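Practice problem: predict the structure.
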Amino acid sequence: MIDNKINVLINKNKSILKFDKCDLKTTAFIGKNGATINKQEGDDCTPIGEFELGLILGTHDEICNKNVNYKRIDANMYWVDDSNSKHYNKLVDITKIEKDWNSAEHLIDYPIQYEYLIEIKSNPLNIPNNGSAIFLHCSNNTATHGCIAINKKDIEKLINNIDKNTKINVKKL
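Answer:
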């Protein structure tokens, strides 16, 4: 049976993302301060562990894979990273809620990185200060603030082969 798990293998010199389901093996960029099992807001580290995947977002009208939920990013979408907000670590539509945060990622401001993104549910209970807006997204060939980034063609291949049961496993070698 083919493993339905995305594996991110981290060593000192290079990080590799593998997904056997579609024979994908590619270089991955992680947080500029490395990886940690004790993720904290603003530490620029990628969380270590096995996580469920969440929302799939992007700048395109639709994707080929109809087995996953996809939402097009628009100008009203923010991902709240203010630990004092009741919307911490959540996608919000600014037209539908009352703003109570001082900091959030305006998703549309990142057209290269967020052309495609997959939420990594490393803080599924949205516990304040435990990390927010952790995604698998398109790379701009630099380290991230905690996300995992791969090139566009590989994330397209990944999105077309994942399903609601796919998980991601991030580990140090």
